[in-house]
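Late entry, evening session. Most of the bench is empty. Finally got around to the prediction I had been postponing all week. Sequence below, unchanged from the version circulated by S.P.
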Amino acid sequence: MAGNFLNLRGEHKGKGGQKVSLEFELVNIEKPENLNVIIGQAHFIKTVEDLHEAMVGAGGGIKFGISFLEASGERLVRVTGNDEKLMDLAKKNALALGTGHAFLIFMENGFPINVLRNILAVPEVCTIYCATGNPVQVVVAKSEQGRGIMGVIDGYPPKGVEGPDGVEWRHSFLRKIGYKL
């Protein structure tokens, strides 16, 4: 299960003297190492179906599971996809995240670069927080009203600056895998 391992809390008196509090949590996104995840924010119940169509429209036999967390109405986690295992993973992480109007897409047999344009073209999509195969932690704020994503920690810090050998390797690698001519 995705887990919280850091909790920071602050309180003060708001307008009219009522107590206002804000709590921050760090939520680990649980996924196998070889899996890519896209985390974003959108705003309407139709999002889950439109994201599904965007993934299918990208082609290439990509397997995926999508979850969308409603922030109003029934406030359900809506789940779709073409792979039960990835749909279960999306659902489990959505429940751990517990934020309003967020979506998670877990994918195999493709990379975020293959689908991001389609996802960004979905009218309900407001922002993409990350699209990665790295380990991810989500910074979540919690108030009396609800929970929201403040940002993500995607992978690890840099170890240095790319030198000439790194530039040569990068140019060669991108051409080898067909992303550059």
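Two things to note before I forget:
The chain has a mean pLDDT of 92.
The two ends are 42 Å apart (CA to CA).
Will write this up properly tomorrow.
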